Each structure stands twice: as structure tokens, then as C-alpha cells.
Amino acid sequence: MILRSSPASPFGRKVKMAAIVLGLMDKIEIVVTNTLDPDDAIRKQNPLGKIPALTLDDGTTLYDSRVIVEYLDILAGGGKVIPASGKDRFDALTLQALADGIMDAAILQIYEIRFREEDRREPKWVEHQMGKVERGLDALEAHLPHLSPVPTIGSIGVACTLGYLDFRFGETWRNGRPKLAAWLIDFAARYPAYAETMPR
Amino acid sequence: MILRSSPASPFGRKVKMAAIVLGLMDKIEIVVTNTLDPDDAIRKQNPLGKIPALTLDDGTTLYDSRVIVEYLDILAGGGKVIPASGKDRFDALTLQALADGIMDAAILQIYEIRFREEDRREPKWVEHQMGKVERGLDALEAHLPHLSPVPTIGSIGVACTLGYLDFRFGETWRNGRPKLAAWLIDFAARYPAYAETMPR
Fold it and tell me: A136 in contact with B at a CB cutoff of 8 Å?
């Protein structure tokens, strides 16, 4: 299988961490992709031009990260990083949605800088996105994700989100959130996949 | 169950159409939500402040639309709008991801207008999002979603996307895409849920 991604993509990292935890990394070839290059093959495989995208041996391409993770989980036997059913499943999936939403709001702040000159950026928009990040982090501080022997896609997603904030915005998310800061240290100590997928 | 949404939200419409198809609409109370109002209860139930969000009788809130649809599908017996397993499941989920991605790119164009004065909008950003919409629609024109007796969440998502483009951008998406235009007419004729959830 071919995974198109980039080292800095937090959604790509989520897939890579899941693949490592599921013991599937040796079946996946990673191809580095530039989503802003109109000639990059990604726009053929995923018309949205977004990473990550996973091309299977039969030529089918799966996206986005949630779909890929579910596919890998089934490939590994099912019910591993995504609990198979019941409340545990929907807790993990909603936690993943929260983490994805924080990442989306953080990425939109980065795009604000990449796509616009300084005098054309819109503070109201940046604050609206920052509000999602702050409220999301506060909710995580109040209800830390449970860490199980095999991490769920919810806690993997949260770890990717916090790692992305570290990478792009520095350590300030830790201010006033000591429990979440300690949680990430614990996560990284338990699961080597966190260090193995760290963006440089 | 309480579904927080708004009449114009295409992601909310996706959940409503799925609920109608699954015969669950009489179990759901819809509460109209303004995501831009800081005092709206949505920011307590979903820290991201996004709709749709489904609050269950035990007080748990599920989000986003994909998670809610999967929950409703299981509640209706499973394997209805989301095929239970195999290639059919991942085809439907990837098609849903394509539809969601087109909707996201269309919504970002609307937000460009809502959040910014005309002289501060960024054509490069709008074109980047429009490119996702155009390539996504071209891919759908080339590979029309299969219509089964019970629609999958993939085709429901595509119908919501096209309905949203009609609602916000008018009919121009049909130019050069006669098969997709005919597909939507067919979809609306087969499934009354399309007309029942039409934004006004």
C-alpha cells in the first residue's frame, strides 16, 4: 500500500501512528506529497488534493485519515485502535472528531499566514479558529482521554493534535493545562509510535 | 435525542436525511443552533462549536456528522446507510469523505465573504478552495455514485453537497456535468428525504 502524506501533516501522523500500533508499517510505502503543487499525483488520487491518502494494491485510493485508520484497523483484525462496538466505539470516534476539529482550526491559522500578506489577515477569523482550539483543549484538560494498553484513535488523535501545536505554535498550549501536559508525556512514554512519527 | 443543527447546514442535512431514511426521525428533536453566537449551548456540548451534534438521552453528545450517522445506522440495526463491511463500506466512506471535503471547501468560500470586507478577501485562497470543489465534481461526473434501494451515506453526502451548491452558489455546477445534474434529479425522485430536508 502507498500512503501519500508529508512529515508535517498531523492527519498523516495520525495514520502513521495507528499503522505502527497496529503492526502494519512494513506493508506501507510512504510517498512525500506537496498538496500545493498542482502537478502532484495526489490531485489524481484524491480530487480534494488532501493528504493523507492510501492507495491499495488494487489501485483503489482511500481517504481521509479516519477512513484509512478504520481500514487499517480492520486489516489488523478489527477492534484494536477503534473499539468494535458500543459506547467505547462512539467515545473514541467523538474524541477523534474533537482532535480533528482542533487540528483543522489550528491548520486554518497557519494557512492564514501562508496565503495572505500580513496586512490582509483577519483577526476576527483567527480568533474564531483560536476559540475552537482553546475550548477543545480546555475540554481535554477537564476530561483526560483514558490510556489503554493499545491506544484508541481518540487518544492517538489528541496526541497528534498536541504534537502539532508544539510544532507550529510552541509550548503555550500547556499554560493552565498541567494535566493535559502531563498526559502527553505519559502518552509519549507508553507508545514509542509518538517519538517515531515526530515532525522535525 | 436532541440534534443541534441549522436549516442551512449541509452536514446537518446529511444527518437528517440519514435519520429519515433509517426511520429514526420521530426519535429526534431538532434544536436550531447559531454557531456564531458565543452564548449558544452548542459550545458546551461540542467545544468546537460546530453543528451537527447529537445529545443522547444519557447526556452524552456525539459529533461530528460522520460519527452521528454511524451511531444512527447502528441504532437502526446496522449495515443500512453504511455497508457493514468490505469494499462496499470503504467505497461509501471514501465517497462520504469526498462529499464532506467539497462541502468544507464550499463553506470556506462562504466564510471568506462573511468574515472579511470585500477588499480584504484573498483570490488565491478562494481559487484554492474552488479547485477542490471543481475537481471533486469532475470526479463525480466521471464516476457517478451508484443508487441502491437504500441510499448509502456516500450518495446521501453527494446529494447534500450538490444541494448546498445550489443553495449558496446557484446552478453553475451543472455546466459541463450533465450526468451529475441528471443523477441529482434521479436521487431526489427516489428518496423523498431529499425534498423533506431542502434548505429554504
Answer: yes
Q: Which helix (H) or strand (E) holds B52?
A: none
A138 touching B (Cβ < 8 Å): yes
Whichever domain contains B18, its CATH number is 3.40.30.10
**ipTM of predicted complex:** 0.97
- The residue of chain B nearest to residue A126, with distances taken between CA atoms, is B115
Which residues are bridge partners to A54 per DSSP?
A3, A62
Nearest Cα residue in chain B from A91: B62
pLDDT in tens, B30-87: 999 998 899 998 999 999 999 999 999 999 999 999 999 999 999 999 999 999 999 9
**Edge-to-edge order in the sheet of strand B29-32:** B29-32, B2-5, B53-55, B61-62
Chain B positions in Cβ-Cβ contact with residue A106 (cut-off 8 Å): none
User: For A75-118, what is each residue's pLDDT tens digit?
Assistant: 999 999 999 999 999 999 999 999 999 999 999 999 999 999 99
A197 lies in a domain?
Answer: no
B66: helix, strand or coil: helix
Task: Give the domain-ending residue among B11, B41, B75.
Answer: B75
Structural domain includes residue B197:
no
> Is B123 inside a domain boundary?
yes
Taking only the tens place, the pLDDT of each residue in A142-159 is: 999 999 999 999 999 999
- Number of structural domains found in chain A: 2
List C-alpha distances in Å: A175 to A133, A180, B53, B121.
13, 10, 29, 33
Question: Which structural domain range is residue B38 located in?
Answer: 2-75
- Are B122 and A124 a contacting pair at CB < 8 A? no
Give the span between the Cα atoms of A108 and A169, in whole angstroms: 13
Most B CBs within 10 A among A42, A61, A66, A94, hence the mutation to make, goes to A94
B107 touches chain A (CB under 8 A): no
CA distance to partner chain A, nearest, from residue B101 (Å): 7
B98 with B182, same domain: the answer is yes
Please check whether residues A20 and A96 belong to one and the same domain.
no
